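Page 37, continued from 36.
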């Protein structure tokens, strides 16, 4: 469950980024898994969602929101729920801006790749 006390207040400027998302107007099923979805079906859906996020002008804000509020489900800012869980474990705040409103998504991706790479 999302941590609602971590959500910013009802200030329009704080939430305005959502109006510019590449996902706006798309079917939310592309970003959130239906009950029982597993394996290659889930992988294909997540991959398609990440492609949308990859060209999104507010990806950094979306990823910061999902990490700050600990969104438990879906693809947010190009990161799956499993990837966000890993980022929460290994740390992400050092790649956030001063206010925590944006993150460096490329550094987060690199961090996940480094953690996923097999040890030699």
């Amino acid at each position: 469950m999302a941590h609602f006390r971590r959500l910013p207040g009802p200030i329009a400027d704080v939430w305005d980024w959502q109006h510019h998302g590449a996902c706006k107007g798309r079917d939310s099923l592309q970003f959130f898994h239906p009950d029982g979805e597993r394996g290659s079906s889930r992988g294909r859906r997540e991959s398609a969602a990440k492609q949308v996020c990859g060209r999104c002008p507010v990806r950094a804000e979306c990823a910061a929101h999902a990490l700050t509020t600990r969104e438990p489900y879906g693809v947010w800012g190009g990161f799956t729920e499993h990837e966000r869980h890993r980022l929460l474990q290994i740390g992400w705040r050092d790649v956030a801006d001063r206010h925590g409103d944006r993150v460096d998504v490329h550094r987060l991706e690199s961090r996940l790749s480094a953690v996923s790479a097999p040890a030699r």
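The radius of gyration is 14 Å. Flag for discussion at group meeting. The helical segments are 12-15, 39-54, 59-69, 81-90, 105-116.
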